[in-house]
Design brief:
Distance between the termini: 15 Å
CATH superfamily: lambda repressor-like DNA-binding domains
Structural class: mainly alpha
Helix content: 55-70%
Radius of gyration: 12 Å
Largest sheet: none
Strand content: under 5%
CATH topology: 434 Repressor (Amino-terminal Domain)
Shape: globular
Amino acid sequence: MKELSDFVKERRKEVNLTQEEFSERAGVALTVVRKIEQGKTNLNLEKVNQVLKMFGHKLVAVPLKEIG
């Protein structure tokens, strides 16, 4: 499974946007994009979803019983 950081960084580069340009379009602070791409773990789910919305994705909580 692809890491969130890799997914966001690869997709951002595919659309030829800098982190600053991408953060402006996603409506989040530049630090949010940087933290996601650096693989930081203390992230705000709402902000992560604002970023993922740019790619037509959303991160949701799934009960453990559904995972395995």
